[in-house]
Amino acid sequence: MIFLQHHLFLGVVFFILLCSRTTAIRVIGRSTTVTVGQDATLFCQLVETSEKLTRITWQKRTRQILRNKNFFFITPEGKTESVNGLGDRTKFIGDIQELTGTILLKNTALLDEGVYTCIFNIFPSGPFETEIKLNIQVPPVVGVTTEVIPVVGESEVILATCTATKSRPAADVSWRLGDLSDSVKVQTNVSADPDGSFTVKSFLIGAASKDLNQQKVQCSVNHTSLNKELILDYALIIHYPPQVVSIISVNVPTASQEFQCVVDANPQPTFTWSRVNKTLSSPVNADRLIIPLTSDNNGLYLCNVSNQYGNGIGTLYVNVSTESTAVCWVLFTFLLLGFIASCLIGWKFNVFERLRTFLSELRNRIGRPGHDPVSTGGSMSPSSSRSQNRRESSESQ
Ligand SMILES: *[C@@H]1O[C@H](CO)[C@@H](O)[C@H](O)[C@H]1NC(C)=O
Ligand SMILES: *[C@@H]1O[C@H](CO)[C@@H](O)[C@H](O)[C@H]1NC(C)=O
Asked: What SS3 class is residue 119?
């Protein structure tokens, strides 16, 4: 029975203590988080007392200052004193009457992060204090790079690196790979700086294949200091030697023909044109070569394409037929045009007769390349000279 009474008594005492504690003199404070460079408000207030305030003291401990150290005093008259280095950065913004000892810490730095203690000295009860946590966040500096440009090959290499530099807390870095997610893998490393910031590097690793060159990927960075996710677009870079070289014609041949050496290579290769067993005299402009269409330019031409990883050769065989044949073809074309024109204009004439005339005219001209058929007079029939006139008039239209 006595035993039970004893327990009851203890219980009541404990309860009274608990109740009195919640209504007792105490300091309330508010922890806060700010982005580096901003001003931080450190709020504290003494409640449930009417005793005489003698002094408010602020202390702090940080990553550098491991033990609590005074840095600011406030007298009951509102006078302030800064010690141990914070100087003008600390400002009293509380109210003595309200018993608030709130301070403003201006232009925060990463090393301001820590635990701040607000101590109210009152007479006669003595000091009352509370601890406030100040968190400093630092937004990351982000970027995607390729530190060493991968060269096409079988072994796994770092294809790209997404970096979120010097943030606090550490940033969350990930990749959006789309179709590439099966062919590449991701490795993320976090390193801590002595100043309290973190650098996160996320590596994209895979075999450097030519197909990956210019493939688009995205790096995503999330951080508490950012109001939304950062998305960084990146196109992968893979280096490879020149692949198949081909030479194509890029104009309709007139007196000369322009050729282009076409190849897939990264980085952009250099082009060296040459002519087998002869010196090259034709005009060259990087991947272009202009060859005058004369028979003395007949022969084999080479386009040697090279970058630092290798080279490739393209060949071109030029065989220009003789000049007189070329003239023949030009004349034939004109005559054909003349024939069509005369057919259209002079339809009342017999088509077969025209055809026969045309053919005899054609024979004349091919038989005497380079000669003006009109000047040879006698061999021309009246109808053929009419056809000739028609041709000229159709040309001048
Ligand atoms: C990531 O960190 C691990 C362990 O420190 C290290 O072995 C690895 O080489 C790092 N990865 C890269 C790609 O640097
Ligand atoms: C092509 O160029 C490369 C690099 O300049 C050189 O090493 C190679 O011998 C050249 N090949 C020919 C056939 O000219």
From this structure: strand
- The Cα-based distances of 1 to 11, 13, 112 in angstroms read 15, 19, 59
306 lines ligand 2 (CB under 6 A): yes
What residues pair up with 174 in beta bridges, in sequence order? 220
Q: Is 189 in the pocket of ligand 1 (CB under 6 A)?
A: yes
Q: pTM to 2 decimals? A: 0.68
Beta strands at 103-105 and 141-145: parallel, antiparallel or unpaired:
unpaired
Q: Is 304 in the pocket of ligand 2 (CB under 6 A)?
A: yes
Question: Does the residue 74 lie in any domain?
Answer: yes
Are both 187 and 251 inside the same structural domain?
A: no
Pick the residue whose CA is nearest to atom 6 on ligand 1: 189
> For ligand 1, atom 9, which residue shows the shortest CA distance?
189
Residue 343 belongs to some domain of the structure? no
Range of the domain at 127: 27-137
**Per the structure block, which two tokens stand in for 394?**
């159709």
The answer to whether 88 touches 82, Cβ cutoff 8 Å, is yes
Which whole-number Å values give the CA distances from 319 to 178, 289, 322, in the listed order? 51, 15, 9
Binding site membership of 270 for ligand 2 (Cβ less than 6 Å): no
Q: At what angle do helices 382-396 and 323-345 cross, to 10 degrees?
A: 90
Q: Which of the listed residues 272, 302, 304 should we mutate to test ligand 2's pocket, taking the one with most ligand atoms within 8 A of CB?
A: 304
The CA dihedral of 245, 246, 247, 249, to the nearest 10 degrees, is -150
Per-residue pLDDT tens over the stretch 188-221: 999 999 889 999 999 999 999 999 999 999 999 9
**pLDDT tens by residue, 306-356:** 999 999 999 999 998 765 455 545 544 554 554 444 444 444 445 556 656
CA of 172 from ligand 1 middle (Å) equals 17
Helix (H) or strand (E) holding 121: strand 114-123
In angstroms, the CA 51 to CA 384 distance is: 132
**In whole angstroms, what is the distance from residue 173 CA to residue 226 CA?**
13
203 lines ligand 1 (CB under 6 A): yes
Asked whether residue 338 is domain-assigned, the answer is no
Please report the DSSP string for 144-199 in residue order: EE-SS--BS-SSEEEEEEEEEEEEBS--EEEEE-GGGGGT-EEEEEEEE-TTS-EE
CATH of the domain at 76: 2.60.40.10
Distance between CA 366 and CA 328 in Å, rounded? Answer: 6
